[in-house]
User: What shape does this take?
Amino acid sequence: MTNTSSETPELARCGTCSVRHKAVCGALSDAELARLNQIARTRMVSSGQTIISDEAEPDFFANIVGGVVKLTKTLADGRQQIVGLLFPPDFLGRTFRHEAPYLAEAATNVELCCFSRQAFEGMIKEYPSLEHRLFENTLDELDSARDWMLLLGRKTAQEKVASFLLMIARRAPNIGCSHSEELKFVRFSLPLSRAEIADYIGLTIETVSRHFTKLRTDGVIQIESNRDITVPDIDILAERADLDDI
Assistant: This one.
């Protein structure tokens, strides 16, 4: 596959950034943000392309501005496991660590706001507010990992499938998908194939497909194509997931 990743030389425009106030840079003052803007570059990555290789030493960090990033761990024998998904405005990379703990791949077309590793780590030391926001993000990731352990260990197959769809539905507005707060209506495209979903939630492809069909038959979701999903009422989906938050 041809790598169609590209990086523009122009400085990222923080003032018009759609995720600025929710991303790690939202903790910065205008003067501090101007400093960050000087080291920022916009990078576009096509679906399926590698962003960061596991065990590699990345030279940048990034805010996800658009699209979905898939995180994968590779075992010694070559087997792989999907361990997470990142959406706007999540932060990609692990500061002050020499090797990447996972393979980061564009699950969809992705827009990144990238920062030089050396310059960004220097700003962390200089600006406590940025360090604090990164610490909060780390704690949020830990909470999410614990929730996912509960899903994998205790939930039924239908609850797992519904929980996965609920996670995507709740993040859908951040990735530019349709939603209506009044009607609790959400429409989105799945960032993973059925096989990848099965891998992520610990089921077989056949089981995932069966429960997609069950949710569709019950009117909880509408499947408009292989990946295009409509949720008429997100509260009903949450009941099937039996989960308060994920």
The first helix runs from residue 30 to 39. The first strand starts at residue 6 and ends at 11. Confidence is low (pLDDT under 50) at residues 7-12. Helices lie at 30-39, 117-126, 128-154, 157-171, 194-201, 205-217, 234-241.
